[in-house]
Amino acid sequence: AHVRLNDVERDAIALSRDSTVRYYLTVPSRGSLGLGVGAEGEGEAPFTVEVTADGRPTVEALSGVAVGRWADHRIDLSAFAGQTVRIDLRGRGQGAGRLAWSEPRVLVPAVERKTLEPAKNVVVLVIDTLRADKLRPFNPDTRVKTPAVDRFASEGVVFELAQSPENWTKPSVASILTGLHPQTHQQKTGESALPSSALLLSEHLGDQGFATGSFIANGYVSDRFGFDQGWDDYSNYIRDGGSTEAKDVFEKAGNWIESHQGERFFAYIQTIDPHVPYDPPGEYVRMYDADEYSGQVKPRLTGDLLEKAKRRPPEVVFDPRDKRRIAALHDGEITQHDKFFGAFLDRLTALGLAEDTLIVVTSDHGEEFDDHGSWGHGHSIYQELLHVPLMFRLPNRLPAGGRVSDAVSTLDVSSTVTELLGVPPMPANEGHALVSMMIGEPSSHPAVAFSDFQDDRRVMTTREWKFILRGNLTSTLFDLNADPGETTQLDASAFPVGRRYSRMLLGQFLGATDRGDWLSAEQKSGTRLEREDAEMDDTIRDQLRALGYAH
């Protein structure tokens, strides 16, 4: 409402003198609350501003008496930085006339916007089936040796809590390349295919004059499912019958890059070494399991074994020795992959491309190893499947060794890439560029990531909370700070602030018609792709089955 006090008119929330205005938010670093307070009518109107966090006593951050003119206040919230809180603007008066709160808002110190020189080129690497906690930049206690990844992370920015929009390849990669949520791009089934109306990052950068090449070792990211759009050179080694070994995929990508080093290029690489079947050379297995083993786990059969172990009741049961062997095979795959990743980085350096090439490293999903009673991926929304690595390196522009602890989505990759390349954003992109977070500027939107499990489960993740809403409308809340392994489902009634905040964010997102601007109260018609289905012939079924997908 427009409220005029003492001849000064402001936009304000004006209610009775005994009313309460309530907000839920996560407090940013060095945040404060700015607002003006005044009262219409005769007499004084007492008020308080209270801040409540779960498990802590309510703090009265401000108390005063409103009169017939505006009084401005700034309340320091730094004691609550990083926490989800409820802020109550509480009127404690009686009588006629309204209590008015003028434009309450969270403030952060002004930061001069940095102008970054655009990168010339970009490489996006998706390491299939790599959960974040296998890597030292995300889990200092991991046993997995990845010196190349460790060095890369020290030279770029690490997003500590990146979430995949889905728990399997097709929808996750569709989100990376289109910047659309799974509910928008509709890639939720094995048969679904991206329609020609979908705009991929390859098409967009091709229109901006980039050479575009893809080097893909997963059969779901194929022409059959609409992923061949916009590439000057498109390769899917599962579909083409070529080698899917990381050594060969990186070599072919490097050859293509070398042949295009005189022009701007976008190379998309999707390696699959950590995916089943887990079959690294013996030297890598012995790094993690040096003892003799003669049990049921055969490297080339791991895909079939894990699929049978997932069934209810399970057709295969692993004893502790089997589990140790499976973990060693997977960890060996990751270390072997790291060797070839390091060689690829060295090749870019030798070509003189490292300084002016943005490199993004992420994954499409993780993998479960009996963390919550199952194996593999595609079946749950626990962090072992949704929490993936995300790192950006661009020398002399992005801070070396930078770390971001807020939750983000791999959906944001394409919008971040276009900003760092200095090209126009993709139209209808529903992600947010992460550049401001990397260079220490305040974000203009909540740090939250949304994920799906088909149409049965919706997930909201922040630095603190993970909220799951099921198709039967039951819900679960986890505290990721206290319980990163999601071992304890919280009694949400004991965390009213976190529960309400989580439900509000997820509800507003699910109710939005424009998911790219889901916070806006004035919703416009957004993007929605019409679902198309691919023809699944025996060849594609066999190729996917070889990767452990049941069809």
Low-confidence stretches: none
What is the 3D form?
globular
How many extended strands? 26
The major beta sheet can be summarized as: 9 strands, mixed
Structural category is alpha+beta
Number of helices: 14
Helical amount among residues, as a percent range? 10-25%
Radius of gyration: 26 Å
Distance between the termini: 59 Å
> Mean pLDDT across all residues, rounded?
94
Note the beta-strand portion: 25-35%
Q: Explain this structure to me?
A:
With 551 residues, the chain is α+β, with helices and mostly antiparallel strands. 24% of the residues lie in helices and 27% in strands. The protein contains 14 helices and 26 strands. The strands form six sheets. Strands 10, 11, 13, 14, 15, 16, 19, 20 and 21 form a nine-stranded mixed β-sheet that branches. Strands 1-2-9-4-7 form a five-stranded antiparallel β-sheet, with no helix packed on it. A hairpin with a 5-residue loop joins strand 17 (368-369) and strand 18 (375-376). Helix 6 packs parallel to helix 9 (320-350). The longest helix has 31 residues, at 320-350. It is globular and about 85 Å long. The termini are far apart.
